[in-house]
Amino acid sequence: MASDNTITATLDHVTESIVVDPWESVERVHADGSVVVNDVHSRLNATTVESIVRPRSVEEAVAAVRSAKARGIPIAIAGARHAMGGQQFAAGAVLLDMSRLKRVVDFDESAGSVTVEAGCDWVDLTNHLIEAQKGREAQWSIVQKQTGADRLTLGGCVGANIHGRGLKFRPFVQDIESLTLIDAEGELTTCDRSTNEELFRLAIGGYGLFGVVCEVKLRLQRRFKVERLATQVHVGDLISEIDRHAANGCEYGDLQMNIDDAGEDFLTRGILSCYRTAPNDTPIPVGQKYIPQAQLERLIGMAHTDKAAAYRHYSDYYAASSGQIYWSDTHQFGFYPYGYHAAIDRQAGAPSEGSEMITELYVPRAAIAEFMTAVAADLRSNGESIIYSTIRFIEVDGETFLPWAKQRNACIIFNVHVDHSQAGIERAAGTFRRLIDQAIRLGGSFYLTYHRFATREQILACYPQLPELLRRKLHFDPEERFQSEWYRHYRGMFADHLQAGRQLNSGSASMVRPREPLIRPG
Predict the structure, then answer these.
(1) Which CATH architecture has domain 104-222?
(2) Which residues pair with 429 in a beta bridge?
(3) Does pTM top 0.85 for this prediction?
């Protein structure tokens, strides 16, 4: 139903028209009440859950956890279902769908913070902030959000510790003031940098293994206007260009890569768009250029069939829109065409279903050109179809237990076409492993969120603390109430580490720090 799902950033607000939740449209209910669910992008995570519970209040979420505990059934936690690594599903589990728990609980204009329920998405939050401050000269706004899709829930963003296109930002943890979670006993717990700080560090980027995030308190920033500056850049010049733009007041930016594998600039040149702070009284002209929904869908189709033309149209649009003025929050929004690949498969007469899978690699900034040159040669020689690729930037995360931003890296994202045949999936796994090896060779890493293709050796090279995170999960949740296919995969991969941990700690006191229950008035 792609034509019915539109989310468009306009001059001063974000509009949406959603006929049906896109994730509900792919659910299949069995006669026994169990339900087959899947992620909305790769659609490679079909999982049969015992049932789905959709709480509309924190109290209903607490009751659902306590009910599952009484029945001895694991719980998986889902939001907008964009994650492709299986973090939100577990076979045989109760699926706690948090997408209807979406109130803005409190907006503190004096402190510049907002508290939202975990099912609130970026559209809901941004529209609330704009409406609440209408007519005021100084306004608050979000700092960053992930790009590519807008209807991701805040709870899911906490679990993956997402990032945006900021040039000087750390991951999402930098914007989180505190969390309220339901623990494995069904009790409400609050955590921040001074209260239950270990749980705070584990839950952010902990993929839902340490409790159900119910509420998130975010730090905001003053809303400001930005001017888009777009130019063609070679990866060898990228860092000097980024440094120059950052020194001249640019807060956001990324490089959209040339995906034409038949051309000499494949993955080594792209269109750099940076966003420079502009005075807030700068007018936003009516009729600024944008890519309409129908044209974007055609571009996505073209990226499968005529990559040179797709990149040319895309880069021409950005070059023509250089100098346009936007708000710092709404410029981060864009349209995601749910279910778009079905039409592409039909038009191609594909023998099996297909989709795109994302992988994100991290390399030191000085190694970008070497990495991209090597990857371009690999992907071209192996005939891989890259639908989209971009380079963004990140600062160091020194707070979470399982940080992916361990140095000032470039973040390189590839959206790779995957045929859903067994051979196609195995081919994708091999491709993603080779890309991870290229990153590791240069002192880099990869993002755990998008797939489970990495080998044990690659995991230990990039996330040596993952086995310890799994052990700590068992201390906070000894009955393994909160599970996912992602968790089960790595629990199996590191079963030897977990067994050693159990033997070491048998008969000893729990590592869990005291947790303070959140007492609600009334």
Answers:
(1) 2-Layer Sandwich (3.30)
(2) none
(3) yes
